[in-house]
């Protein structure tokens, strides 16, 4: 059963605008969340993460928001650039119970000029 | 920079063949993982290892086995390849209790 869900398979945004990618999780034991970015024919690369003790983490153009009560997190990219076009995976884990990440199915972001 | 190297970018095998996918990391990471990525299914964990000679089943271990004889090397074995094992295989590693995974570039395996 999918514990991490990304319900939007794709998203198209104009360059310069905000991209918002959403992720929901079902396991209340998850306490650490990550976003990965993947270009075709390459492995995923780490983008940004957030611990459950925070509700926001920012790194340059990328901000992740966490709403624990709703079991929801989102990745905001502002401003979006064509080079941001990629598949974005949300991942979650419990930092005390194992080493593997649970991934969502991914959202393909297309940023158009 | 962490480097996770997968021995092949593309591999074509026949049904029933034994297939070895090799992965090497150069950062002395304790944990290593094998995932497969399929369209519409995301990344699914096959096996992982948190120490030499240790292995744990992931979500979809059926049809696969692994070997970790040395800390830096983690091998995925398909004992008898089948067409439903055609996929992109991704190896990853992480340090101790660090949640962040570092991925290799992937091996696109086609089983005909």
Tell me what the structure shows.
The complex is a heterodimer of chains A (about 110) and B (about 110). By secondary structure, chain A is mostly beta strands. Chain A has one domain (about 5-110): Immunoglobulin-like, CATH 2.60.40. In chain A, about 0% of the residues lie in helices and about 55% in strands. Chain A has strands at about 5, 10-15, 20-25, 30-40, 45-50, 55-60, 60-65, 70-75, 85-95, 100-105, 105-110. In chain A, strands 2, 4, 5, 9, 10 and 11 form a six-stranded mixed beta sheet that branches. A five-stranded antiparallel beta sheet of chain A has the order 1-3-8-7-6, with no helix packed on it. Chain A is globular, with a radius of gyration of 13 Å. Chain B is an all-beta fold and about 110 residues long. Chain B has a single domain (about 5-100), classed as Immunoglobulin-like. Helices cover about 0% and strands about 55% of the residues of chain B. In chain B, the strands form two sheets. In chain B, strands 2, 4, 5, 6, 9, 10 and 11 form a seven-stranded mixed beta sheet that branches. In chain B, strands 1-3-8-7 form a four-stranded antiparallel beta sheet, with no helix packed on it. In chain B, strand 4 and strand 5 (about 40-50) form a beta hairpin. The termini of chain B are far apart. The relative contact order of chain B is 0.33. At the A-B interface, strand 4, strand 5 and strand 10 of A face strand 4, strand 5, strand 9 and strand 10 of B.
Number of domains of chain A: 1
**Share of residues in helices of chain B:** under 10%
Q: From the structure provided, what is the oligomeric state, counting identical versus distinct chains?
A: heterodimer
Output the structural class of chain B: mainly beta
Give the rounded overall mean pLDDT of chain A. Answer: 94
C-alpha Rg of chain B, in Å?
A: 13 Å
Number of DSSP E strands of chain A: 11
Task: Return the CATH class of chain B.
Answer: Mainly Beta
CATH topology annotation of chain B:
Immunoglobulin-like
Pick out the low-confidence regions of chain B. none
Number of helical runs of chain B? 0
CATH superfamily of chain B: Immunoglobulins
Which regions of chain A are unreliable across 5 or more consecutive residues at pLDDT < 50?
none
Mean pLDDT of chain B: 93
- CATH level-two architecture of chain B: Sandwich
